[in-house]
Amino acid sequence: MANIKLSAEKLDELKAICKSFKNDKGELINVLHKAQGLFGYLPAEVQEVIAKELNISVAHVYGVVSFYSFFTMLPKGEYPVSICLGTACYVRGAEKVIDEFKRILNINVGETSPDGKFSLACLRCVGACGLAPVVLVGEKVYGRVAPDGVKDIVAEYTK
Amino acid sequence: MAKYKMHVLVCGGTGCHASQSDLLLDNLKTIVADKGLDNEVQVIATGCFGFCEKGPIVKIMPDNTFYTQVTPEDAREIIEEHLIKGRKVNRLLYVDPENQEHIADSKHMGFYKKQLRIALRNCGFIDPENIDEYIARDGYEAMAKCLTEMTPQQVIDIMKKSGLRGRGGGGFPTGLKWEITNRSVSDIKYVVCNADEGDPGAFMDRSILEGDPHSVIEAMAICGYCIGGEHGLVYIRAEYPLAINRLKIAIEQAREYGLLGKNILGSDFSFDIELRYGAGAFVCGEETALIHSMEGLRGEPTVKPPFPSVSGYFEKPTNVNNVETFANVPVIINKGAEWFSSIGSEKSKGTKVFALAGKINNVGLIEVPMGTTLREVIYEIGGGIKDGKKFKAVQTGGPSGGCLTEKHLDVPIDYDNLIASGSMMGSGGMIVMDEDDCMVSVAKFYLDFTVEESCGKCSPCRIGNKRLYEILDKITQGKGTRDDIDRLRNLSTVIKDTALCGLGQTSPNPVLSTIDNFWDEYIEHVTDKKCRSGQCKALLQYFIDAENCVGCTACARNCPVNAIAGERKGIHVIDQTTCIKCGACMEKCKFNAVYIK
Question: DSSP string covering B520-539, please?
Answer without folding.
Answer: HHHHIIIII---TTS--GGG
